[in-house]
Structure formats: structure tokens, C-alpha cells
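Hi team, as promised in this morning's meeting, here are the two structures we talked about. I've kept the exact order from the run log so nobody has to guess. The first one is mostly here for context; it's the second one we should focus on when we meet again. Sequence first, then the predicted C-alpha cells.
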Amino acid sequence: MIIRNYFILLLILFVSCKKDYPETDVDLTDYIIQDGFQLKPVASEPLLIAPVAMDFDNRGRIWVAEMNGYMNTMEGKGEELPLGTIKILEDRDGDGVMDHAKKFLDSLRLPRAIAHVYGGLLYAEPPNLWFVEVQNDRPVNRILVDSMYAPDGNPEHQPNGLMMNVDNWIYNAKSHFRYRQKNGKWLKEPTTFRGQWGITHDNFGRLYYNDNSRQLLGDYVLPNRTTRNKFLKPAHSVHKLLTEDQRVYPLHASLVNRGYAEGILDKDSLLVDVTAACGPLVYRGGMFPLEYDQNVFVCVPEANLVKRNILEFHGDSTSAYQAWQGKEFLASTDEGFRPVSLSNGPDGALYIVDMHRGVIGHHAYLSPYFKKKAKEKSLDTIINRGRILKVESENISIATPVNLETATDEHLLEWLDHPNGWVRNRAQQLLIDRNKKGLVNSLVNLVKEKEPSISQIHALYTLEGMDTLDFDLLLQVAKNGEEQLAAHAIVLLESFVNSKNTADFLELGNGIIKEKSLFKDIYLASSLGIWAHGSKELLAPLLVEYSILYKGNPIISEALVSGAETILEDYKVILDQNDFDRSSILYQMLLESIQNKADAILNPIYVSKGLKEDPRTKGAKIFRQICAACHGINGGGNEGLAPPLVHSEYVSKPIERLALIVLNGLKGPIHVNGNRFEMNQAMPGLKNNETLSDKDIADVITYVSNAFADNPQWISEESVGELRKIESQDGNEFTEAELLELDFEN
């Protein structure tokens, strides 16, 4: 193993020492893209290897994070080696194809995310989140932003994404924290837990993400609008499944990890539903036909394809549907095609990061079925490759990328209304970084434009980033602006909460409620409790009016109760005095918050992160690496992935039943604490994991029992060895019925 790892390291060092390469020449005849579009290779090996994330700098150059050490063998050997790099790719002859590469950082262990922000580069290398300034394409003044960004765990289930949103906060997938630099200091605060791999936003600033078996999830509302009440965990406004349709239409019978399980493949051995969805992207490039604007594209690497979804907005909610039935936007029979992330480019094209690796599932989760089939098809030999592809419209000429590096202030102001969302976002951030107060009047005038435009939202948040917002401006925009702009103004007004401004806010609210705008009412409702904190008597009538109007609407009810954390008891008294419907969704939500406050039960995003690990056992570490991604680090479970372990019947006596689940896996449905869990995918067993001994498995079983059962138990490695002999009826995962039939008393 040492010799093999040495040669892998030598190969990567040799490749990374080169700078100039022959231009990419990739055969794309096995790829079928939707009519009216063309697929072009931008870069490939040996220019880059195993790319997982990309970003563009202000000159339009491509930066890539390479996870070179990931799954070079079916056993994952070499994963611990510092083989990863961050590279800068350049097109020096101007033909649109990369022909030069330089290392920016190397000797990284599984880097997973990068973002150009604040004049430098933010990058994730577990467990740390780092920020470095960039001078002459070299890293300087490195700062540790978060030492617990991606703590030890399975590489498939660690935070990633690093996406700057319109609101000037940086969001992540597989994380419940967001980040921002303000006055030279890095801020970190809780937010909704979102997705698994990849995150994106629309023009308004709503967030979209997904997980393995659900191709598109999203928030109905702007970030953190319904999470401010620490004693309420929102269930109706965030982390919502936007489409029930998980169907995929591959061109061929691709190898899928649990393809043997019932319902995974159809009669032609084609994948039926997504099993490894990732890398969603809201297209905002402005260079596709109009009907593609703000469509969400989703990577499905297990089936070698990219999906297209169309969003629909309903005032207080969002839904999506697949653009077509029976075909995909892009699909291939190339089993090395592994799209893992997507980007909007400075030229308006859609860019695809293709890891181009035969096996991208982590070794801890690979089934014996997959390992056998992958060896037969030589998928394990597709390594040391990587591609970046781009999609252009055939009928719309691609835009000439702007050079933000040399842009004047006037250009940046103009580009806040650019048709390309990537340009708009970057222009906003550069204006904030330059922080020229002389531009404030121009920005204010832009916000006040009579003709509604997306530039107004960007201008508003440029002012916010420069700390130059004005209460009267926000009030005017909230009253008279287009509804999306007005919603942002209502949100930003909260920074001016005081007794002097309350009467003006009350007048605003009384006007908005008469408009009957469901969209604006969400944001006004979410602010009422904040403003009422110091002016309950003044705001009470409007609070009651909104409560009565939306008592049966779960989304606006969450908005109302979320903003009311500091007045929960007073809010209840006000409603009771007005004979409010106590059976309503809103009232029950309010009661739940009051009880949670009394019992000190917090929304999990506000609970201190991490486990109380017993340093004397290995079980906790194994649990974090393999089990926590689905069951939650605190055993609370994850919707659509795995049921909770806390107080579960299957974690209590007999421990042998828990051991059989851990060894062999479990396929749903299953009942836990009286609730039925469908489990979209079977839980994999550990007995075929060659890196785990019987002692290791005994440790993790014992840890789970001690951590989550009411009556902790212990199991020996000898018992684990004996239990290996017990198999399910079909030799694969157990079902609930089979487990309940087993008698462990005799």
C-alpha cells in the first residue's frame, strides 16, 4: 500500500509541475444535449485531475479544487494523503479552451470548495475553512476562518458550497452555518441546515439544494426569516421538497450502488429515480433562451446526466417540475462522465465540473454488488482524469466576458443591471470592497428607479454592505417598490428598530396588509414581532390582524411566530384577549414555542455543535465518519435519509438486533417511536467493509447504544463475529418484518 501511494503522489506531483499543455481534445460523440445547445470541452486531463468545484476570478479565469486523493482505489487507499490542489486555468491564446495551468495551493487533503470573495480566496480543506489574500497569483496572509467547518467525517457528507448570496452572506451545503466578513472580522452564525453537495440561489435570494435521493429542495423564503425564534424549528417554510418527481432518463444501464434492490432499476436495468443527486444550479447567465432563465439544473453523476427543472412561484411557496418526461437536458453513455457541480460563467455559459472518475461513491458505502460489477467493468481504472465542459446556446451568441479586474466604478454600477447574474453579484461585491462613499447617491438613485429592475436589489445590498442604508429610503422602497424589492426593504428595515421609527413602520404595515400581497405579507409578518418588542401596545392591533388573516397558513404562521421570540407570552395574551382560534396552526405553533422555551428546547441549529465523545472508544469516531451523515451527529435522524436513533426501539434491547442492522443494513419501511419512515434508500451494512474489524463494529454498536438508548448495552467483538453468520432471507439488507421475527432470548 505504501508503494502504491508513493507512486500516486509522484504521478500527481509530476502532472502538477507542468504548466502548459496541449489543448483539450475530448470526444463528445457519446453525449446528447437538448436541441438548440452545444457542448464544448474547456479543460481535461492532464490539465486537471478529479475536479470537484470551480469558480471564476475577476479576470474570468477558472480556478478549480482537485480532490486527487479521493477513491483512487475501490478501498479508498491514499485518502489520507495531502494530494489535493487548487489550480488556476488560463486560456492564453483566447480560443475558449484552457491551455495553461498553475498551482495556487497544493498538499491539501480532499479540498472541497472555493469562492472568490473580499479580494481573496475562501477555501475548505477539512476540518478547516481558510481565507487567503491573492497577490500575483500567490496566497498571502492566510487566516483561519473556522477550525470546525468540516470536522472528521465521510467525504460525501462534509460541508461544501461556499456561495455568496445577494444578501452578502456566504452559504454552504451540508451545514447550518453562514459566514461573512465585516469590518475585517469574520462572522459565523446559525442558519437552516441545507442539502448535501452543492447550493445555489435565484435572483431574489432564495436558496436551493438537494441530497442523494431528492433532486431539488429549497426554501420558500429568504434565509433566516423563519429561524430567528430559537424555540421554533420551522417545518413549513424551509428545507422543502420542491418536486416529487425523482425520475431519471439515462441513455444506458449505468452501474448503481444498490442496483440489486427492488425498484432501483427498471426491466431494462435503467435507473428509475435519482440516488446521488448533487450540484444544483439556478441558471442566471442571461445567454440561454428566455424560458431557461432561472431554471434549476441538477447533476446526476450515477446516471451520467444533467437534469433541467422549471421553477414555479406561488406567492408564499415554490414548486418545480421536470422540463421533460422521457429525456434529459444532457446525458451520456460515457461511464466516466461524473458531473458533480455546475457554475454560471462570466460569458453566460453553463459550466459543468466533471470529476470523471469511475467510482465516486465512498468506499464505506459501496455494496458488494457494486464492487463486483465495477471490477468487471473496470470502472476502478478510470482515475487521474477530470473535465470541465460548457454549454452554450446555438442561437444566441455567447457574450464577451467583462473584465472586472480593471472595471471602473461607473462600469460596476452599470453592471448591477447586467443580464448575467454572475456579473451582477461580482459587481456588487467589488463595489462593497471598494467602499467609496461618493457612490452612495448613485446607488440610492438606482434603488429609486421607477422602472422595476433586478439592479435595484443589488444596489440595495451594496448600500447594506457599505453600511450606508437609510431608514427613509427603505421605508419609501417598502411602500412603493416592486414586490421583491419591497420585501428586501422590509427585511432591512429591522436594523432601524426603535421607538422613534415604530409609527412609520406601523403605517407601512397597515398599508401593506390592504394590498393583499401574499408575497409581501410573509416578510411584513416576519418583522412584526421584532418591531413589537418595544412597542407591543402600538403594534398589537396589526399583529392580531395578520394573525387572524393567516391563522391557517403554516408558512406565514411560522413567519409570525419566528419574529416573536422576545414577546411569545405577550403574543399569546394578546391573541387570547381577542378570542383567537386556539385550534389554529398559528396558535398551536405559538404554544409549542412557549413550551419549548420553558423546557429550554432549542432549534438544533442553535445547539452547540459536536458530540461528547468518549476518547477511550473508537466507536464515536466511526459513527461520525460513517453513520452521522444520515442519522445526524446527535442521533436525531434526517428526513428522507434515516430515522432517529434517540429512544429508538432498534437501539434498545436486544442489542443483537441493532448489531444485525449495523452488519447487514436495513431496507424500509421501518417504524420508530410510532412513526413510519419510508427510507428512500436502503441503509448499507458494514460487514463487507474491509477497513473495519469485528472490534471496530462492536465499538460503533456499543457507542450507538450508549449514546442514544435509554438503557445502554455493550457487545463484544466475539458476539459480532457470531452474528455475522445470520443473514436475511435474500442475503442482502434486513427488513423490519424479518428482524421482528428473530428471537434473541433463546
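And here is the second protein, the one for discussion:
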Amino acid sequence: MALRPVVVTGLGIICAAGRNPVEFWTRLTTARGGLAPIEDEAFAVFTARHAGQVPDEWIDAQLPAGEQAGDRTARLALVAARQAVEQAGPARAAPAPDRFGIILGKCQATPGPAGRYQPMHHTADVVAERLGLRGPRILVSTACAAGGNAVGLARDKILTGEADAVLAGGVDPLLFGTYAGFAGLQALSTGPCRPYSRSDGLNLGEGAAFLLLEPLDLALARGVTPLAEVAGYGLSADAYHATAPDPTGRGGASAVRRALAEAGLTPGDVHYVSGHGTGTPANDAMEAKVMRLVFGERAARVPTSSIKSFVGHTLGAAGAVEAVASVLALRHGVAPPTIGFDDGAQADLDYVPNQARAMPIDTVVSNNYAFGGNNVSLVLARPRDPVPYEPAPRRQAVISGLGPVTGAGTGIAETAAAIAAAPRAAGQAPSLEGRTFAPRSLWRHMNRLSRLAIAASRLAWEDAELKLPRKALDDVALVFATGAGSAESTGGFDDSIALNPNKPAVLSFSNVVLNATGGAVCQTLGLRGPTTTLCNGAASASIALDCALEMIDAGKAEVVLVVAADETPARPATGGASAPFEDDGPVPYGAEAVEPVTGSGAVAFVVESADHCAARGGRPYARVAGTRHAAGEGAEPVARSLALPGAAPGLVVGAATGLPRDGEEAAAVLARMPGALLIASAALIGDCQAATGAMNIALAALAVRDGLAPALTGLTAPLAGDTGSYVTRPELAGPVAGALALTAAHDSVRGAVLLEAV
């Protein structure tokens, strides 16, 4: 029997080639592009000034008066999201709010009203709040592959039964700094780009696009006409270079093959390919290799085109923009052209030059590639009639290796010793002195965040005692979780732009994208399996674990490496910026709490199918018994996140960091689980955003297998309950049968992970 078919029922788009799907499709099929010179005087410093821009009046005309001011990124996203929801049917037939999710792809952090970067997940939070969506909420940041990646992850959420509908898409505005970075890489064309023919550079663009996904049976029950089926998707890592694609095309080809296999199709079933087609020499040559690797002698007869010739490269929105075009191509039986194609170009592939082509189309493959070596391929097909289906399989998974790199220690042995000694080490910087976890030729060029993540990944791998042959690494997956990416690279790049936008720090620019760190891990460890980057603040690690479990359930991987890393400036202290806070560190759950101490760190853990771990004789820490996430603001999501069926943990590792709002969490835990003891990793390592969430999961695993848990030694006046409800001495009576790890991106997403003894 087949899996439950997932279909697209609504489309929304705003970009340089149209303010809605109808106008967008008209311009694609009549070969009217939207690339034009940038009129903003700030961009006059650049030689190349063509881009795909969205007029402000297009945005404002489609929004209620109360949404016409403020964050432009969120306004773009709201326009496309509202269009998709409206096309999908009347509100009275929509899914319940807690069954309606949003997964958004985004490449760039965007500044808020005060000029500071907003959390990456802010845009998704705004759209969810405006539309009343309380289901799964994920920000995926795999650079230029993010929009397509979001559509694939949305399909997973429906197949697992976590949602009845998901808005999946991408958004990115045209930012001066990003433009300067691409100009510094000499990647921009001086005129409208010409993918696949002249290939002399790309044009940047901006925009937003959403697809509304839901199960076929529910769509038909609502009386909605499905537009296309999301039949499958594939992810892969190049493990090759920070910015350049693998010239052999094997990473891109792997993503296509995985997508087709998931869809139950072969290359012979594909009628049209929506290409990435940036117009740069490296990308266009690599894509031709992918076509030949996947389609063999048939490659020249499979039409493939690039709509970036119409709209420019919309970065995190690109995959979603091209997915919308692919659905419309299926609906109308027309392949959009590659405009600006040089008729004299020597091309041995069919790039649909300059004019749209009517043709039978039942299956489309849409491909995207990104800095950091991320590849995604979507398979979109004409909707089928309803078919018998079975629920997505659920497989047991275990955590088999831990790799903490924090101020409390590097590796599990040092961390365990620190727990036993009960230090107040929050704020202390992790130390990698004297240790190299990658070839020196790579290590010396890496930023600090990549070094931390690679060290954590290697230590987790070693702790799991994994010894896999090189070929098996092609199927090992990686999920990278981060709240903000590299502060070092972002700061260095911004400083260079301020000094001279024509001489940006291009090495820093290549590491500004949040998935760059995950790409560095893949490159160092040689991992080429499914790879993605999630960015939901301090809740990122538990969402990443969810993603890993879905990969294992779907048979996409038997081994998934989850790594979370963040860096923040340490608080000044007498002993220096990296000194621990011995007297005034954070006191989670305490009325005597001070301002949380920020920290830096990386924590990795190996997730395996229980069968795989047992077959190789591994010694797991714990079984992943369940996960749950709740979106929204205030205290109510705290209680919802704790509602795991059958959860009766002996220990709860909380998300508290030393703020008064810690009391909400403690009260909810004590009310639902009165026999559990509370701890929080922030007392040990400080607030390290995504790494703190991952540390909570690691500490829960340690408590289950080894009976270790850090003490809240400074807690004397709890905000909820009494001190008997907390671990205040560095010892447990022994291993606990179950432990719950909590994560929290406040006013966005709360997470809970239940681990049990194997």
C-alpha cells in the first residue's frame, strides 16, 4: 500500500514577475521578465545593478491597513501566504489552528526597526500570528535551497500526522549587504542574467512564495480541487566546498534520485525539470552534469529551464518560487522558457530557449542548490485519484553518542566530571586549545562556530563508536540546528561592508549563511546523506531531533547526526571575557535569578534506528520515546508541549535560563509531573541558544543511562514549589527510567523530548 498522498491546494507568490499566481504565470508564458536596473542610489557603488525588485505598492495593495508598515520581509511573506490560504478554500472549512502549521525557508537574517538582526524565525512567527496558525512551526535555512526544503519538510509533517495542513514556502528581500557579498565574489551579471547560455553571472531578486499542502483525502472532503501532488523529495550534501558546487554533479544527482525513489518513479517518468539555473558558470556546468548523470542518454530530450531569468535569484524564496511555477506548468501543460538565451550558444541539452512550450507534463522535478553544499529536489505530479494508504511507519530510534563542547567541558568525559564537581561555570568559553578536529588545511580557515560544531560532531561519533565504511557515509544524514549562526562571520562581514562595500570580507560572507556550519561538518566528516539546517532559536535542537526521527521513519537514513551550535559574546568578568561566574551565575527557577549569562557552545548527538544500533553492538544512552512541540505565546504552549502520552519522567531538564518567566515552566511541570525533579543546563553552561536545547537532550540521555545530572546549587527560593522538587546536589539515586528534555524559543515554539531506558 502507498503512503497518504499529499497535495498542493493553494498557491501564493509575489516577485519581480508578478504580484499573484495569475500575473506570474502570464508573464512566464509570454516571456516578459522582471529584471531591471536598481534605482536606489545606495546601489550605485556597484558596477552590476540589475535585479528582480518588488514595488512597495504591490505589497501594500494586498495587505490590511494594519500590516502595511513595518518589517518588509514579513509583509512580503504575508502577501503570498494570504493568497495561498484564500485559494485553498473558505476559512470555515480550514483545519483547526493547532493542526495548521507553517514551514518557512529563509536565507538571510533581516534587520528590525532598530537596525538589529531579528531572530530568523521572526517572519514565520508573524505570519503564524496573523493567520492564527498554531501547528508545527519551523524555519529552515539551507540558503538558496531553503524554499524547496520547506516544501519537503511540510510533506513529512503531514505524513507523520502532526498536521492537517501546512503552509510551506520561502521569503527573502533584496538587502544591500547580501548584494555587496555577491558583488565581492564577482558572481553578478552586469545585465539581465542568461542562464545556461552566456552564464556570466546572476541577478539577485526578492519575493515570497507559498504552497498550501494537505492530505488528498482531507482536501477532497473539503470540496477543494488539488493542484498537484508532492510525490517525493530528496536532500543531499556535496561535502565539497563552502560556496562552489561539486563540479561532478554527484550531490545534485543524489538528491534527484532520492526524490524519485521516494515518489516511486524513475527518470523515464520525468517530463520537465525546473532547474536552479543561476547563470553562474560553476552552477550551470554542474547542472548539466546532473542532467546527464540522472537521465543518461535521454538527458537531451528532457526539457529544463530556469525562471531566474525572469525574477533573479530570490535566495531562500527561490525553491518555493520555482515550485509554484512547477505546479502551474503541470496544471497548464506548458514548460516556462529560459529567456535571454543566446541563440548562438552551443547547448546539447534542451533549455526551452526564449519561448514557452506547450507539451504533455505529468511529472516535474524542481531542483535547488546552495552555498554550504545543500541540494534539494522536489517531485511534483498531477494529482492521482484517491488510493488506499497506510500510516507512515514509526521505527524505534535511540541516542547512541554524545558530543558536548561547552564551557563545562569538551567531550562526554570532561562534562561528566564537571557535573560531579558541581561548578558554576556558566559563561566560560569552550576550549579547543591544542586539538584539531579537521585537516589543518581546512581547520585554519574555519570560523569558531564551525570548529565547535565539527569538534562536537567528531566527539559524538567517537562516543557512539561508529565505524562505518566510506560508502556508508553517503547515506548518513546531518541536521544542523542554530539560533543565529556565526556571530564572528556576520560581524566581520558587516564591519567590512561599513568600511568599503566594494571590498567585502568574502570569506566571512561565505559563512554568513546559517547552513555553512552544517556544510563544514559534512565536508570534514565526508557525510553526503540528507542534510538540512533548522533555525528556531533555543528550540532548534528538539525540532532537529524531530526531523532526524522522520528521516529514520521514512527509511532515508539509519544514522543521523544532530548538531546544535551557537556563539554569543561572553559577559565581561574579572578573569577575562571567558571567565566563569562563580558567584552570580544564572539561577534557573530561582526568585534570586539574575540576568541570564550568554555562552557559546556546540552539542552533537548520534540518532540511530534501534535495529541499526543493535546490529552493530552499540551501547545506546536512551530510546527516544516521544517528542512534542507547541507554538504560540505565553504560558499556554508550555502546558501543551508537556502533553506527551504516557510521560511520567523521573527527571525534567528544563529550558529555564534565569528569567522570571522560568516560573511558568516550573509551575507547569510540577502540576503535570509532581514526582519529577527539575534541573536546567543553563546553570552549567549558560544560555547558548540552540546548543543549550541540545545540552538538555544530552543531559536527559546521561541521566537515563548513567544517572548523572547537574545540580542547581544556587537555588534557595524557587519560583514554583520548594527546593525538594529540584536537584540541588550533584547526585541522583541512580539512573532514571525516563527523563524529559525541554526547549524553548520564547513566544514562538516550545519543545519536549521524552527519553526512556533501553
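Starting points for discussion:
The mean pLDDT is 93.
The CA atoms of residues 41 and 428 lie 45 Å apart.
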